[in-house]
Amino acid sequence: MSAALDAAPGRELPVLAVVGVGLIGGSFAAALRRAGKVGKVIGAGRSRDALVRAKGLGLIDEAVALEDAARQADIIVLATPVGAIPAILSRLLPFLKPDALLTDVGSTKADVVKAARSALGDRSECFVPGHPIAGAEKTGPEAASADLFVGRTVVLTPLEENTEQCRTLAIDLWKACGARVVLMEPDAHDAALASVSHVPHFLASVFMAQVSGADDADLRLSLAGSGFRDFTRISAGSAEMWQDIFMANRDAVLQELKAFRALLEQTESALAQGDARELHELLERAAVARRFWGSRSGHE
Question: Which residue numbers delimit the Prephenate/arogenate dehydrogenase domain (predicted)?
Answer without folding.
Answer: 14-300
